[in-house]
Structure formats: C-alpha cells, structure tokens
Amino acid sequence: MQSAATSGAEASLVRLRNGGMAGPASAPLTCQTPIKPSALPASQVQHLGIHTVGETVWFNVPRHTETISIIQQAWGTVPDSVVLNGFELPNAAVITLLTDPNGNLLYDDNAPPPDDRTTAHVLTYASATTGVVTLPNTTQAFADSKSGGYPAGTWSFVVNDYALECVNSPSICSGGRGDDQYDVTVITKPVENRTTQSLDVGIYLASDAWTATRAIGDPYFQRFARTLAALYAGGSVRIDTVTVYDLPAWAKARYATGVDVTDQGPCSDFSQLFTLSKPKIELPLFFVDAIEFGGVEVHVSGIDGSIPGAASTGGTVVSGAVVDIADLAEGACRGSIDFANCGADAVAYVSAHEGGHYLGLYHTTEAFGDAFDPLEDTPTCSCSTACLSPTGASLCASQSFPLTAQVCTQTAQSPCGGGDNLMFWLFEPYISKGKLSPEQGKVMRANPAVQ
Fold it and tell me: If DSSP states are collapsed to H, E and C, what string results for 29-86?
C-alpha cells in the first residue's frame, strides 16, 4: 500500500479543523423531527411562523435578491406518506402557487411540469416532513432574475403537502387530510458580483475506523479535501474550511456498519442520521463504513437527503448526504487526480456529487436517458440510436439496460454528451471527470450555504 502524497503547500489550500463532538450524548428514545432555525444573519431570514396547509403566506423580497429559499418544517404530526394510484409516496412538504409581485405564477404543484424542464421557473423535489425549494435552479429562472435579481416586493405562496392534494383527489389518492401544519421560513440571499464564492464543509464521522483527530492528520483525508476543493473550483466555488466532527458511541454503533437506504422516511436511520448535523452554514456530509439496501451491503457510494438540502438549517431530516468511505485510505494517491486508483479521489468525487444535489443540482441525464436536468448548457444523453446501437436503444427504452458514462462521452454527437459531468447519474472511475457547466456553477453559488 502506497501512501497518499501531500505537501505543506497543498494541504494549506484547504483548512482542516476538529469540530469536536456532534449529536446528543445518549440516543434519542423517539423519532426526531425537529424544527430548526437558519444560522444565516437575521437580515436574510424571514420566519413566517406556523401555517396550515391551504393558507396563503406573503413574504418580502428585497432589491437585488439573487436567491429565494423556502423551507417548510412539519409542526406536530403529519402523515409520512400517501397512496396515489396504488403506489406509496412520501407526504412531501411542497409549496404551490408561488407568485411574484407582478402577479406572475412561477410554480403550481398541481400543474404538470413542462416537458422541457429548462423552461420551468423552478424545479422542486419531493421530501417528507421537511421541504425545501430554492430558486434559481433552472435556465428560465436565470432569465427571471438576470436584471439585478428577482423582482423586489411582496411575493406569496400557498403552504401545501401531498396529503392536502389527496383531499382533492380521493378517487385516486388515499391518506389525505387538510389540517397539517408547517413552520415556514424564507431565506433571501443578495446578488453577489464576485466570480468565486466560498463554501465550508462539515464531515460527520459515523465510522468505526475514523476519528476527527486521525482524519485531520491523515494524508489520505488531506488528499480527499484537496480533490473535493479542486472539483468544486470547476463551479467557481472555493472550499475554505473542512470541519471534521466525531459522533458519540451510540451513533457509531447504529450507523457505522451500514445505513439502510431502503427506507428514506423521516423516522428511518437514513433521515435520523442527518438530525445530528450542527446549525452551521456549511455542506454537511456523513461518512459511513457501508451503505445497505434491505439489510444487504450494496455498491452504492452515496445518497443525498433532498434536492436541495436544508442549507444553513442543520439538524433536520434532510440536513445532509451520506457517503461510503470504505475505500478512503486505499490505492496509490500520487500526482494528479486519479479516480480509478486513488480511493481518496473517488470518495471526493462521490462527496462532490452528493454535495451537488444538496446545493441544488440534478442529474444531467438519468439512468435510462428519459429525463434531464433543467439547465440548457449541460450536455445530455438520450436513449436513442444516436447514442446506442438499435439493440442498445431498445434495451435502454425498456429500462433493461441503463446508459453508461462511456456511451455518454461521445461529445461530437450532441445527444450523447455529459458522461464526464460531475452530475451524470453514474460514476465510472476511468470515464468520469467531474466537469461542471457555467449554469451548474451558478446554481451552486446561489445556494444559501455558499457565501
């Protein structure tokens, strides 16, 4: 085994610090679905209080606002799921009827999204108990906010979740109710004219093999931090500080040997792990020794809690992403970045990818080439004969054989690009490069965690 190479100059590019212990000293006796405040300055935070689904709420957008982020956190008990057409879905906390001061309706959760998602004013992601919507995250949204930011004045939206939507569709949906309540916060971020903005990262060690003290002095971990910083530099995001937190013994015993991602409900181990994150303005990543699916260890390198995560609001059930670090201290890690042979580089790639989701990025192309991200400048890869043989296209269309990064790096053919993008759905160490487009960088820099 060869050690990861490091030097004082390289290590100094990213500051590593020990953040001490995170989480309570003893295991909680019940499921934790806490309501947490934002750690951002009061000037950026509007706490709108408790509202029942169906209520319209109003908030102010100051002049020169680059980002609007809406966080709904369940108050009291709400249903975990609903059943739509026989399929169980998380009872997502979602807004609807988002309207700007000029009366423009930017989002209606009851209306089908456009076929071309780049034309949507905002794209949302369904998550139970805690819902987060952050814009801009589409090409159209950049057009909406390009002239000095979003329109200033009074905006509005309706507090909403799937249980309320079920009330209006009882023939196809069960589990509906109309009295759920949510604590609502709106975060606004002013326009930044700097081309590069900074991001702090928090690493939470749900691992039997690693401690904060060991990580900070370990050349593999130092290599990981440098590679993570290099990947995000492609989006003009500068990582200044990586803070490493230990977790108490009970948390390591529960989570280190394998977080099962079969259940991602709010009371699952997957979601409960995120409630240990601190109230910091940082990207929270939880390092585990294994990821399981149905009690069986599987080759899943990482998975995020929500798109985006609850930035600046640590300790919620969507405040983080999980990364498997079994290979962190494996391989020869010398010279330039080498995802295929250096475990630290591979872990950095997965961390950057899952962190990209937390910051608001979607997969550029999904596994079967039938869904793409909402950004015009990211190469996409369609399930078609332009990218595959007729047999391959047929298998892909029937969802029998997914697209690979190798197939989707034929950039000379426009339908077949993006396999080397950081947010391609699949990580292939010999093919993946971790590229980011200008618009992907803009989404990342708009996130409230990036300052």
Answer: CCCCCCCCCCCCCHHHEEEEEEEECCCEEEEEECCCEEEEEEEEEEECCCCCEEEECC
